[in-house]
Amino acid sequence: MNFFTTFVSLVAIVAIFFVFRTLRDRRRRRGLPYPPGPKRLPGAKTYGDVISLRVPGQVIVILNCPKPARDLLDKRSATYSARPVIPFYDLADWGWLVPTARYDDAWRARRKIIDHGLRPSASLQYQPLQRTKALDLVRNLASSPERFREHLELCQGAIIMPSVYGYDVKERGDRYIDVASEISKLLWRTILPGALLVNDLPMMGYLPEWLPGMAFESLARHGRKLGEDMRYPPFQFVKNGMRSGTARPSMTLTNLQEVDDIDSPESENAQRLIAEALGSLYTAGADTTVSAMATFFLMLVQYPDIQKKAQAELDAITGRTRLPDFSDRARLPYTEAICKELIRCRVVTPLGAPQDMTLFIVVASVLSVFTVGQAKDALGNEIQVDCVSTGALVR
Ligand code: HEM
Q1: Mean per-residue pLDDT over the chain, rounded
Q2: Which top-level group of life is the source organism from (predicted)?
Q3: Where are the domains of the chain?
């Protein structure tokens, strides 16, 4: 392609982008003005409880205090509660991923499948596994503390995969975990406003791939392949286990046992929904929990006095003769408050705060065994912590 063609293509794409955006904004507003808000850059003035903000490609309306948030998102959720449409996700065929899917009948069906395995009564069955993996984490941290992030990722993967598929993860580099981690990273990176031009200008999805700015096409193909690798091979692993009688208890097995005949074509749709629903869990639960765990280590370094208080609480319960367990939870309000604070103070996803049992047992076990502080250089001086956020939706 010569310089002239490239230049004309670029000008055409930019022109289409602005025309499209203007038309879209007008259509969205249907003649009503947006709430007041800073022009392009946030200003210092206060604009009130409901403000709007323009970022490339979209207008964000911010509900600045609980009353309008409750009035609109709770009381009138049928109108105002929805997930953003991400054109790249359509190109990558990621509509099946439950945490980002649109609210439709398929989402409801997948949500029901997940609910079976994650409702509070069902989640009690994962506690022994969570505790075992928290202890493995403690061992790994003792042997190579500098690789703590890797150990956290392994710990969470080694809890999710057996729970969902009855599949044991022993070390990093596991084939299923690698695929799941790769898709998670792509997912959280490409959801952000301005991350990809096609998200602001969906019609780019119909343009030929040789035009400049179309690299998202190959990224989408890669995402589609990752999505297939994530849903079907571990699902097939459970089906094979069912046929040979070796399948271990898991959410997938429980759901497949309710399917009349796993080899009949009539059950294909039901099986697809199970594979999609449960294939979403790594994406939903791994990076989120790992991010909160990583924040925990940062906080330990930054607030040694809080670490001491939590250790005193834990020692009083365990007498330093054993490691904490879930049965101690009700008597550990300070440790419990730390878990809540971890999700609040450096928000994992800017959307909400769930209960996380893994976070509790990891926090309690690590505090019982280690005192985490700043690393020291060769001269014994403390090395300041580099506080880096990835900038993706799940940090
Ligand atoms: C600290 C850890 C976690 C955080 C901060 C977190 C955060 C969130 C948030 C904010 C949402 C709502 C997204 C929305 O409605 O648009 C969500 C949804 C979801 N999360 Fe988590 N999560 C965490 C751990 C987990 C774990 C461990 C699992 C399961 C293994 C999980 C499974 C899900 C699922 C399936 C959804 C989608 C629910 C639906 O569509 O109704 N999450 N999570």
Answers
A1: 86
A2: Eukaryota
A3: 1-32, 35-81, 110-278, 284-369
Rounded to two decimals, the pTM is 0.82
59 CA to middle of ligand 1, Å? Answer: 25
Which atom in ligand 1 lies closest to the alpha carbon of residue 292? 1
With bands split at pLDDT 50, 70 and 90, how would you rate the model's confidence at 383? confident
pLDDT tens for 20-52 read 666 666 665 555 667 666 655 455 456 777 888
Which numbered atom of ligand 1 lies nearest the CA of 282? 30
Q: Which amino acid is at 139?
A: R
Is residue 302 a contact partner of residue 386, using CB atoms and an 8 Å limit?
A: no
Which residues have C-beta atoms less than 6 Å from ligand 1? 83, 98-99, 111, 114, 118, 160, 280-281, 284-285, 288-289, 292, 343, 348-349, 351-352, 354, 356, 359
- Residue type (1 letter), 134: A
Secondary structure E strands in 244-369 = none
Q: Which atom of ligand 1 is nearest to the CA of 280?
A: 35
Whole-number pLDDT of residue 354: 46
Question: 354 alpha carbon to ligand 1 midpoint, in Å?
Answer: 7
DSSP 299-320: HHHH-HHHHHHHHHHHHHHHTT
pLDDT at 386: 74
CB 113 within 8 A of CB 274: yes
In whole angstroms, give the CA distance from residue 238 to residue 279.
13
Three-state secondary structure call for residue 341: helix
